[in-house]
Structure formats: C-alpha cells, structure tokens
C-alpha cells in the first residue's frame, strides 16, 4: 500500500549558506559523547539514523546570509518508540555545551512533570555516563549547568520564571500538552535571542482541537509546499489515513524505529491485539503508524462479550469458593459498584456484580443516563438504597452477607471517598487493599480482560448493567502504552467494569491456591494497605 515518502533526504540546496563544519561538529558530538540509556542498546554509543543525521545537519548547517542559523522552528513527528526522546536529549546537550550562545538557557518542556522528566533524565544520564561530560557539567536534580549555560526541565506554566530568556526550547510529546499557555509563554521568552531554536518532538494525537494539531496542520502545509516559511524545518513520519494498517510494509515505512528502537515482532503482536479488540485499532494506528485524529473508539469487543457464557450464575455452586471483590464508590452521579470475581479451573473467571444507587434519584438518573434503571431494579440487577445519597450501611451489610457464603480473600477499593466505609470493613476483619486508578496500575487487569474475552472465558451471567458499563468504556492510553478504562461522555457509566478490574488486579497477584491454614475472610487477617506495582503514592 502507498505511504508517504518518508525516506527522501533533506536537501541543503535551499540554504543561502551551508556550513559543513558546523553540521559535522553537531553529528560528531552526538555520536562521540552521547549514549543510549535504556533498552537493548543501553550503554552503546548513540549512532544517528539516516533521518536523524540529515535533520541534525540541516538544523546546524543551514545558515542565513549573516551567518545565523536558518531554522528557528523544527517540527519532528515520529511514532511511539521512534527514538525521539534520545535524539532530543542529545540536541539539548549540544546546545548546552557546544552552541556559542552567551548565557544559554535550554528548556525541556512537556505536558506534565513525568513526561518532561523522561527527556531530561536521558540527558542527565548521558552526562553521568561520559567522563568528559561529567567532569565539565554540574548535575542537579532538575538542572544541568555548563559554564554560564543552563539546561532545565519545565512541566507547567507555574514553573516558568517571569522574564526568562530562553535560547533553545525542546518541546517533547507536544500532543499531550493540555493547553497553549505554557507553549506561548516559553515562545515569548525567546524574543531577545539572536538565533532562538525551538524543536518540537511529538507523536500523533487523537484530538483535532489541540495545540499539537494546530502546529501539525501548519507543519504539513509547509511540508506540502502550500506555505512558504523558511524558518521552519519539518520531518513527518506516518502512514496515510487510508493506508492498509495490516500491511507490515506500511508499518516499516511509517515507523523509522522498527528494527532499531522497537522490534517488528512487537508491532505484530500489537496488531494482533488490535484485531481482537476493536477499541485498540485507533490506538494502534495512532501510536505506531502516527495517524492523527483516531478519536475514541470503544475499547472492548462486545461480540466477544456476548459470546461468553451468559447463563445465570449459580450462586449455590460458588458457595465456599475463594473470591476477590472490587468496590468502586460513587460520586453524586455515578453508580456504586461491587463485583465478586472467582477464578475458574480453565483460567477464566466468573463475576457476580452488584450495583447500588439512591432510590430517590432513579427517576432523574433515567432521564439523564437514558437507560431503564427502574427495570433493572425490578429485575434484581440494581439495589436501590433509601434516601437521595448512597447508603454505605447497605453496602457494608451486603458485603457482610456475601462473606458468610463465599471466602472473600481481599477487597480492592479506590481510596477516593471510601475512608469511613473501609474503616468499618477493616473493623469487621476484611483484608482491604487500595488500587490506584492509574494507567500502570490498571494495565495488567485490562490486558487480562482482553485475553479472557478473546478466549470466551468470562462468565458474566448476562448481567445487563455490567454489559452496559463494558460497552461504554474507551481505552485511555498513556505514552508508555499502558491502558485504563475511561468514558467518552459524562452520561456514560463504567463503574461496574472498574470494580471488576480492581478485583481482577488483586486476583492476578494472588497465589493460585490458598495455602493450608490461611485464615478465611472475616478472620484475623487485617487490612494490608499495599498497592499495585507502579502505583503513585
């Protein structure tokens, strides 16, 4: 299938002047002093890919008639795992230590502190791992200093210093920037510099109403020749929206990191997952083929869901079995959700959901959410508690009753708004474990749910409220590829699905069988306030 021609070399023929000496100096610095920090190439010298070499030569070699750099803005669009953060860190160090700008101020910026820190930490580690750089630079937690030049990291508008005098701005993961405030303030801080340099590094974004899309749109018009702006240099990798996303040739043309920073086998595995999970198709196209505006597709394959065992759950047959519970307490509009999860001998799961809401709010909920809560209540799928706020006493009573029938090993909960109820459950003798609602914490159970749906091993009893929540969910994907369930509209509920995933997260960490003599739920095993790996404190 046809893809954009991403292999065409940059040409220096459009430059008024081209300095081979300065272009060579930059590429020499990158490959002589900079090293890979992570992955299979960790510790190896940073060898520029052909596109990185040509880009660097043009950035530092193309000159204006007065000798200043021609390009003031560089737009680099590369799919995830394309090597952009390592490249950006190396450029930052060059601007700190070699570029002759007096009192240079180099800023690494991103949408939040975590993402800004990725690029900065690579730069810092490059310094620490090279004896010459480590001797010449002073290394601080969030700052590198060389003579009168500084390189630091900024993640929000509040981090900027009034009256700053930025000489080089490295803007990483532009598609994650929530607004244009930080960007505009940093750009304005460069006004007094003779040859300011802004380098944007980004993957494709999902939204077409963002700062990243605005800059992407301008860059594509320059790249196509529709706009003449000699201060911009553009390099964009990605497949056309109508390209065959199943074709490995398309993958290789769209992603310059395949075979270098990411294995084609990994991309193939992600493609197979997208085949099984329709909600991941847009994510695959965005992350690995760099196609913009994929929107928010539904996460789970509901045909797979409906193909699972939907026969009514025989609670008597589950009596005495180990289970894990997930509890998601509600806000004023959400449902309170409690889900019991049992592991089955075939490596599948049986789930028993309980949904709660205040009885006095059912009519308004039906109007707002456009579903028949009253019918679900009459059918026994919804527990209506007295009053106009959720009754935690009813939830506690339900859990106590269930614990008399099942061996409730752990209860996973979200810390939000749960302290009083959890305190009571702890006093009742339950083992209660907080589970973060972050991408790293939810990624494991989310992937496991995808697996059991694809294999037809989820026994959900045909519960219509659980199915509704599952069908509402979209996959929120972070830059690391970790996912968590989210919702696309405020009227959509996903609470039962979230509670199920919390229970699943604890089940996945538990030993397959209970060791002899271990206390049953409701015994002396008190609350273990531990969290999933990757949880933020």
Question: What does it look like?
Answer:
With 537 residues, the protein is an alpha/beta fold. It has 19 helices and 19 strands. It has helices at residues 20-33, 50-61, 84-97, 113-129, 131-136, 181-188, 211-223, 248-254, 264-276, 281-289, 302-307, 315-318, 362-369, 373-378, 392-403, 419-427, 439-454, 464-472, 495-509; strands spanning 17-18, 62-63, 73-77, 105-109, 138-139, 143-146, 149-154, 168-172, 197-202, 232-236, 322-328, 336-343, 349-358, 382-385, 407-413, 432-434, 458-459, 473-477, 483-487. Helix 1 (20-33) crosses helix 2 (50-61), helix 3 (84-97) crosses helix 4 and helix 9 (264-276) runs antiparallel to helix 10. The relative contact order is 0.10. Mean pLDDT is 86; it is low at 1-13 and 514-537.
What's a quick, concise take on this entry?
With 537 residues, the chain is α/β, with parallel strands linked by helices. The protein is built from 19 helices and 19 strands.
